[in-house]
Amino acid sequence: MKKFYIIVIAVFWVFSTNAQNDFYDEDNINTIEIFFAQSNWDQLMDNNYAAGNGDRLTADSVIVNGIVFDSVGVKYKGNSSYNANNAKNPLNIKLNHIKNQDYQGYYTLKFSNGDKDPTFVREVLSYFISRHYMQAPKANYTEVYINGNYIGLYGNIESINKKFVEEHFYSDDDNILFKCNPQNLGGGGGNPGCASGIGSSLEYLGTDSTCYEDYYEMQSDFGWENMKNLTYQLDQNPNNIEQHFDVDKGIWFLALNNLFVNLDSYIGPFCQNYYLFQDDNNRFLPVVWDFNESFGHFSMINTPGPGNPPATTQDLQEMNPFLRDGDATRPLCNIIFADPTYRKMYVAHMKTIMEEFFSNNYYHQKADSLHNTISSAFQSDQNTFYTWSQATQNITTSINSGGGPGGGAKVGITELMNARTTYILSQTEFQYNAPDISNVSVSNANPTSYSTIYVTSDIVANGNNIDVKLGYRNSSAEIFAKTQMFDDGNHGDGSANDGTFGVQISLNASDMQYYVYAESTDAARFSPARAEHEFYTISVTGDLVINELMPVNTTTAADQDGEYDDWIELHNNTNSDIPLLGYYLSDNSNNLKWAFPDTFISANGYLIIWADENGSEAGLHASFKLNGSGEQLALYDSTNSTVIDEVIFGAIPSDIGYARVPNGTGPFVVQEPTFNLNNESSTNIFENLEKNDFVLFPNPVANTIFIINSDKKINTLSIYSIFGQEVITKNNTNKMDVSHLKSGMYFVKINNNQTIKFIKQ
User: CA–CA separation, 132 vs 116, rounded Å?
Assistant: First the structure.
């Protein structure tokens, strides 16, 4: 049987063995205690905010979940969410304000005050959904105390900064980053010789780079010329947009904001609240930000003013899924919606989001779960902007409230989204039957370096003028190339016109990532459905491979100096020694960080490299460390510095290995470490998960699973996919209907503790 693997950049939630919970674990609420020497700390931070120079008040100490930090900088943040009269203002805490220190790798902590959302779940829920389709911040909740007084419950939102781009885009150089928030919501600008724009709209404003300074906030050391060039290309060369902008991420970005009715965003009247990052391919890509008024809380579709009242509930439910189509002031919308292929991709992506979260009511289950998590903390908060009754009611139905443009009635989340999902799916372009894609496979599941394979897929056209393409790349640092697939009997596809499409691909020395895209006259589909965010992977058996790594080594193995450092294991799959002079290892695709000295790896042997940033020590010590939260690691050859092997990993617990199984050839699994040994001598942690006090039956299961235990109460059951996606959560039950799930392997997590895997038939 042919095999393929789907690789997803995700957190390995099921293996968490750390003493402390992840800082953004949605099942937990953090505790932050801030101590200022000054009793008038609030006035001092108000003064700093009013001065607008970014100054911070230095705290004597900040305690994050019991860990004490000193010399921490604290300031108020926000625009409309800040008010000097508020008892609870948004906070920005910089742990490395003076000293080089962090908490779980995070050094800037951002807390939102919930002033715009009665439910207090909109923001966290929106980020949770978005992370399944594009790189987006993590989010949960934090209780904040200042000088011993409980200030209240806050949203805890991951900062978009150098750490974020390192983790998600595998770049730690000075790539260009913009926060897209205009200085003046009323228009700003006005520089002589500059066109007038609408917010951070990506409109071309002129040849002078200063024309853009009122509309964007540069977060990097340079970038104004790059921003000017991007807007020029969108204006003058829209057909070449893919050279300058990551269109697929742009489509996910627009689809999420539109579906969520998140109008305080690029698609809204003020065109703001997102980030732009320029990757190592010199393409800009968007990052979602500021979801505190998502799900219709911000109810202005057009610029507030005479003749433009707040939108009604029906207006929001039936908001155009192609909002800003043909609008020259929104070049991104204008280009994507005008192109027939991009438009069909947009429909396909939006349908995927609706199918996975809204048509099945999963979003409501998640909202209820978040609501239950914050119940006690919310009701203890004396500085909330809404009552608990309002918070509970607004999950489902409208309430009357103030705050923000268009104050008054605030639509309930399910009141909005159930009707909105029905409305969108009733629109003509969403009713077309897209081609069906199945049996995606390769002619050789374990190819060798530089061999040739066929990729095939069965396609049911469901329309006219079927067009099938393979998107593929050899490294996560590369752009997906697209090539035609054929049903002509000449491309490994069997007989001509039999519905099987194929294409021949020449591999290099690294794994190949790929997806299938099928388009008819009316509609399109991806496989996997979340492409390009997710993809299939062909594991290439190279002569020299990254075989195992450990990003958090505390007790497993020590170097020659007795230090427990991160380590990387290479393996030689050949019967000959391989000289390594000229080879490189790097965790940054744009920087070949560490060059091997004049050494070799023996035939069929192993070689350990310590990743500790200490090249002065004897032995092999790389000039970088591994990121325990996850990153990219690549091995480059000695001839033309091309990638010969690459691994992308998520968060891995302390003293746990990430290793190829079968040894030297297989995909990576999380398992007990096999330092300098054959990886198959260890036990895969997936198997260890079975050793617990509960019994699951039947397994495999078609319809309903049951959890049996004689003496332990079951409080919560949560089902996760193999990619870490939470798909179902139920409380106070020992059974769960799984009939609607797709076939495959899943995990059920019991009481947020013990985990059992099962097969859905």
Answer: 25
- Per-residue pLDDT of 139-156, as tens digits, reads 999 999 999 999 999 999
* 231-256 confidence digits (pLDDT tens): 999 999 999 999 999 999 999 999 99
Alpha carbon distance, N-terminus to C-terminus of the chain = 18
What is residue 17's three-state secondary structure? coil
CB atoms within 10 A of CB 57: 20
> Strand, helix or coil at 118?
coil
Using an 8 Å Cβ cutoff, are 755 and 689 in contact? yes
Contact 411, 398 (CB under 8 A): yes
- Same CATH topology for 434-536 and 689-760? yes
Distances (CA, A) of 647 to 440, 564, 620: 23, 22, 20
Give the per-residue pLDDT at 308.
Answer: 82
Distance CA 601, CA 228 (A): 49
Per the CB < 8 A criterion, the answer to whether 157 and 139 are in contact is yes
Q: How many CB atoms are located within 10 Å of the residue 146 CB?
A: 18
Q: Which of 753, 708, 760 is nearest to 739 (CA)?
A: 760
Task: Determine the angle formed by the axes of helices 247-259 and 340-353, rounding to 10 degrees.
Answer: 50
Q: Coil, strand, or helix at residue 671? A: strand
Residue 726: φ, ψ to 5° = -75, 120
Q: Considering the entire predicted model, what is its pTM?
A: 0.83
Interior/surface letters 250-275, b for 16+ CB within 10 angstroms, e for the rest: bbbbbbbbbbbbbbbbbbbbbbbbbb
Assess contact for 586 and 592: CB atoms under 8 A: yes
CB-CB contact of 630 with 652 (8 Å): yes
Give CA separation, 349 vs 31, 69, 133, 479, 720, in Å. Answer: 37, 43, 9, 19, 22
How would you label 181-210 residue by residue, b for 16+ Cβ within 10 Å and e otherwise? bbeebeebbebeebeebbbbbbbbbbeeee
Round to whole Å and give the CA distance between 238 and 231: 10
DSSP letter at 20?
S
Q: Which of 91, 81, 85, 54 is nearest to 217 (CA)?
A: 54
Please tell me the distance from the alpha carbon of residue 726 to that of residue 373, in angstroms, as a whole number.
16
CA–CA distance, 139 with 153 (Å, rounded to integer): 13
The superfamily (CATH) of domain 544-685 is Lamin Tail domain (2.60.40.1260)
Q: What is the distance between the alpha carbons of residues 297 and 116, in angstroms, rounded to a whole number? A: 7
Phi/psi of residue 376, nearest 5 degrees: -65, -45
Distance CA 700, CA 269 (A): 51
In CATH terms, the superfamily for domain 689-760 is: Immunoglobulins (2.60.40.10)
Q: Which helix H or strand E contains 632, and what residues bound it?
A: strand 631-636
Angle between helices 331-338 and 340-353 (to 10 degrees): 100
- Hey, what are 639's tokens? 């001839």
Q: Using CA atoms, how far apart are residues 512 and 348, in angstroms rounded to an integer?
A: 24
How far apart are alpha carbons 292 and 155 in whole angstroms? 9
How far apart, in whole angstroms, are the C-alpha atoms of residue 229 and residue 264? 26
Q: Phi first, then psi: what are they for 550, rounded to 5°? A: -140, 105
Rounded distance, CA 609 to CA 620, Å?
5
User: For 553-612, how does the pLDDT look when each residue is reduced to its tens digit (9 = 90+)?
Assistant: 999 999 988 999 999 999 999 999 999 999 999 987 767 889 999 999 999 999 999 999
- Cα distances from 526 to residues 31, 94, 347, 516, 739, in angstroms, run 42, 41, 11, 6, 23
CATH fold label, 434-536: Immunoglobulin-like (2.60.40)
Domain boundaries, the chain: 14-158, 165-430, 434-536, 544-685, 689-760
CA angle 211, 217, 222 (to 5 degrees): 80
> For 151, which DSSP code?
E
For residue 188, give the amino acid letter: G
Say which residue the tokens 């030297």 belong to.
664
For residue 677, the number of C-alpha atoms closer than 13 Å in the C-beta half-sphere is 10
User: How many residues are there in the chain?
Assistant: 761
